[in-house]
Amino acid sequence: MNGRQAQSAPSAAKPAVYVCICNGVTDRQIREAAEAGCRSVSELTMRTGCGATCGSCLDMAGDLLQRALSRELPLPVLGGLARAA
């Protein structure tokens, strides 16, 4: 592979960031929990342990969970609109 091909190769995945230091839970794990059906901070704590020790991460974990969930919600379908040909 020449230098030009190496530059156009996709960059490495963004590294995970620890949200809960006490239990070693990352932002990636929170997104994965949301994708697996987690819908609340209490459920996130049960699934991952995030916030179960000192709780100082719960605000950030809740924000990340809500962001992940908002990306998953399907856009509403408007009824009664004719589709353009």
Give me some keywords for this one.
85 residues, mainly alpha, Arc Repressor Mutant, subunit A, two-stranded antiparallel sheet, 2 strands
**CATH superfamily grouping of the domain at 15-72:** BFD-like [2Fe-2S]-binding domain
The helix tally amounts to: 4
End-to-end gap = 46 Å
CATH topology of the domain at 15-72: Arc Repressor Mutant, subunit A
Structural class: mainly alpha
Q: Given this structure, which CATH class of the domain at 15-72 is correct?
A: Mainly Alpha
Range of helix content = 40-55%
The order of strands across the largest sheet is 1-2
**Uncertain parts:** none
Describe this structure as you would to a colleague.
By secondary structure, the protein is mainly alpha-helical. The chain has a domain at about 15-70: Orthogonal Bundle (Arc Repressor Mutant, subunit A). It contains 4 helices and 2 strands. It has helices at about 5-10, 25-35, 40-50, 60-70; strands at about 20, 25. A two-stranded antiparallel ribbon has the order 1-2. Helix 2 crosses helix 4 (about 60-70).
Short description:
This protein is mostly helical and 85 residues long. It has a domain at 15-72: Orthogonal Bundle (Arc Repressor Mutant, subunit A). 45% of the residues lie in helices and 6% in strands.
